[in-house]
Amino acid sequence: MKFAEFKNNIESRWAEKFNGKCNVKIFNCCGKCITIDFYISPIMNVTWLNDMLHFNLMIDLPNGFNEAEDLPEIMTVTASHNCYKVKPENKYLCFESKRIPFRKSKGTAEKIAENIGKSINKIYEMLTEDLAAGNIHENHINILKENLK
Q1: pTM listed for this prediction
Q2: Distance (Å, rounded) from C-alpha 97 to C-alpha 55?
Q3: Across all residues in the chain, what is the average pLDDT?
Q4: How many CB atoms lie within 10 A of CB 136?
Q5: What whole-number distance in Å separates Cα of residue 2 and Cα of residue 63?
């Protein structure tokens, strides 16, 4: 699978459930890796820290990887952030966070894309449950309602 195919696969899975942004890009710093950043809001003009969702994945690539090449046979995906903001139970806090279950996985690009798709479905399920239960902070309710499909 080529990088462009992989990128389109992930972005289309995100677009099935959310109107927000999904950035899949090759990042080059001390080696190459694929970074995948998910945002609830499609308009994030300041920083990703302002979004209620903090779900970021990383896949290491071999040195000298070129986008025109096929992705490596075996890749490993890890989560650098996997939580989202909810209403706090403690009155002295502005937000609390809820962990999104994600397990480091290894395999082909197809298997990785499938696992990421399952995580996207889980995020959608968790957010809709918390929205129905009234656990979403008032600052995020309208943004979440607008961007859930």
Answers
A1: 0.91
A2: 12
A3: 91
A4: 21
A5: 16
Residue 26 contacts by C-beta under 8 Å, 6 or more apart in sequence?
A: 3, 32, 33, 34, 35, 61, 65, 67
- The pLDDT of 111-118, averaged and rounded, is 96
- Token digits for 14? 């995100």
What integer is the mean pLDDT of 87-107? 94
**pLDDT value at 44 more than 70:** no
Helix (H/G/I), strand (E/B), else coil: 24: strand
From 77, 119, 75, select the one nearest 99 (Cα to Cα). Answer: 119
Chain centroid, CA 15 distance in Å: 12
Phi, psi at residue 3, to the nearest 5°? -60, -40
CA distance 78 to 73: 17
